Amino acid sequence: MNSMFLATYLALKEVIRNRGRFLLVALVIALITLLVLFIAALGEGLANGNRQYVANLDAQLIVFLEKSDYIISSSRLETNTSRSVRRVEGVADAGAIYTSSTEIVSLAEPLKVSMLGVEAGRPGMPVIVEGREFRTGEARETVIDRNVALRSDIQIGDVIEIRSTQGTDDKFFELKVVGLVEGQSYFFQPTIFVPPATWEKIRPQSESELSSDTPFPNIVAVKLQDPAQAEEMTARLIERVPNIEVTDIATTINNIPGYSAQQGTVQTQGVFTLLIGILVIGGFFQIQILQKVPQIGVLKAIGSSNGVVGLSAVIQIIFVTALGVGIGGGLTYLFSLGFPPTIPLVFNGARSLIAVALLLSIGPVGGMVSIIYAVRIEPLKALRLG
After folding, report:
1. Which residue, among 262, 260, 266, has the nearest Cα to 70 in the 3D structure?
2. pLDDT tens across 18-36, in order?
3. Read out DSSP for 176-191?
4. What are the sequence ranges of the domains in the chain?
5. What are the angstrom distances between the C-alpha of 34 and each of 313, 327, 331, 360?
6. pLDDT tens digit sequence for 274-324
7. How many CA atoms, within 13 angstroms, populate the side-chain half-sphere of residue 99?
8. Residue 227 neighbours by CB distance under 10 Å
9. Closest CA to 288 of 2, 21, 5, 7
10. CA angle, 43 as apex, 39 and 47 as ends, to 5°?
11. Given the DSSP bridges, would you call strands 191-194 and 111-118 parallel, antiparallel or unpaired?
12. Going by DSSP bridges, is the β-strand pair 111-118/169-181 parallel, antiparallel, or unpaired?
């Protein structure tokens, strides 16, 4: 206990006496913390913008067209595929999902959105948080993601107008907003949901597609009676339903174009930022030790052990690092309050805590060389008597 008290006293006394120098280093650590937390939030935000709808599906398996490589945009199933899937033993329910993009033009500034056709009450239809589900058939009704409402002030009961390029002409369609869902971004865009028949009428189409009124789903979301039998059901579905391939939600997300590369890039940026932090902290404390070699020599000459000297350096490094991380965390919170919803920043609790834990660990790791050097200082050589 005496050694701990002495080491703490020496560490904090030096910090107080040289507070300007240590505060400067704490501010550098704060800036590194700010950068790491924003990179983590950006990575989570971009990932959510790409995968959120798929990740929140009330389903365990996704059915694709055979040889589509589990890419949603490359898959185009037969219209009766969802009915065939529902008839397979072990399937609780299945819902067809139709994907496209459009633009809401009844706003001061047009807003690009993903437009998904889904079957009300089946897997693929998100949980309604306000309002109601749309009617079936060709009802000109829509359910919107809260992200659309935040960006445009659209409310339940409003009528929106969308623009759709069909063939060589731009056509405009009106939809009444009847419900609101949350957390359903798809392919980096906020999302609106419409019935499949309505989707087929109003979606962007090429000249060759205009003659058809039959909607072809991209994928089918499958909810199982027993989620633990996912592997067995995958094989059963492939055997019973022709021209399909089946996979789980995680594989579907990883095959979204650009998702894996995007996350790898963001994570690499975070790792390099942490390495820079280690070098900055290590360099500062190494200089600190070199400047106070005579003082360490005196401490050892009057009886201080290597343990006290090393522990004092560790406590000092941890204190300064924690101070810097605390300041950086506070600045991150303040800055996050001012960012508009269009910027994809999501401060995920678990991801942020991991980032903070790594930031707190870079201090001792970066200062390890200086700690080892301090412990190895010989008193006589330090005092130039050896």
Report:
1. 260
2. 888 889 888 988 988 888 8
3. EEEEEESS--BTTB-E
4. 2-51+260-382, 79-242
5. 25, 9, 7, 13
6. 788 778 877 887 777 777 777 777 777 777 677 777 788 888 888 888 898
7. 19
8. 12
9. 21
10. 170
11. parallel
12. unpaired
User: Two tokens at 70?
Assistant: 């589990």
Distance CA 274, CA 71 (A): 34
- Which of the 8 DSSP states describes residue 42? H
Say if residue 351 is exposed, middle or buried (CB neighbours under 10 Å; 0-12, 13-18, 19+): middle
Which among 153, 175, 154, 155 has a CA at the least distance from the CA of 163?
Answer: 175
**What DSSP state is assigned to residue 208?**
G
Q: Could you tell me the pTM of the whole model?
A: 0.77
Question: Given this model, what pLDDT does residue 381 score?
Answer: 61
- Kindly state the tokens that stand for 211: 């003659």
Average pLDDT across each block of 10 residues of the chain; the chain has 386 residues. List them in order. 76 84 88 86 79 90 93 91 93 94 91 93 92 90 91 90 89 94 86 93 84 84 93 93 93 84 81 81 77 72 73 84 89 82 72 80 76 70 58
The amino acid at 163: R
Whether the CB-CB separation of 181 and 144 falls below 8 Å is answered with yes
Q: 215, 155 in Cβ contact below 8 A? A: no
**Is residue 345 classed as helix, strand or coil in its secondary structure?**
coil
How many Å apart are CA 26 and CA 328, to the nearest integer? 9
What are the tokens at 148?
């659309």
Residues in the chain: 386
